[in-house]
Design goal:
mainly beta; 8-stranded antiparallel beta barrel; 15% helix
Length: 134
């Protein structure tokens, strides 16, 4: 008698697992979530606290760029790699600066935690801060 109930319960469990596995994720990030203007508030680093605006633009086919990091103005342009929830600033040299870092987006898609290093030749500046979408 107990075997009669085990098989249907087992199959119901397998079916429910399969159906739950096929449900879409509630929080899906896309590289385009990074596009636009962001307010950066540096909380640590040589010049912290300071606030400034950065702009992220581009597309998958053209590549993505970030302007204005480290309060260097709109002409200070970095190549970046945004992905699902993470923004990577690969090591690169722009003028006299060497920079690399990353940002992790919060689930609200309007804020992110930013960390990067900047070296202008006088030494490495380890910067942390918060980004808020404008």
């Amino acid at each position: 008698m107990r075997n009669i109930f085990r098989k249907p319960i087992f199959f119901a469990w397998i079916l429910s697992f399969a159906l739950v596995s096929c449900l879409p994720d509630d929080e899906e990030f896309a590289p385009e979530d990074w596009l636009g203007s962001w307010e950066v508030r540096e909380t640590s680093g040589s010049f912290a606290p300071q606030s400034y605006t950065i702009n992220i633009q581009g597309s998958e086919s053209e590549g993505f760029r970030l302007n204005g990091l480290y309060a260097q103005g709109a002409s200070f342009q970095l190549d970046i790699n945004p992905s699902a929830g993470t923004l990577l600033i690969p090591f690169q040299q722009v003028g006299d600066f060497e920079v690399q870092g990353s940002a992790i987006m919060n689930s609200d898609l309007t804020s992110a935690r930013l960390t990067f290093t900047m070296d202008d030749g006088s030494g490495m500046d380890q910067v942390e801060g918060q980004m808020t979408k404008r």
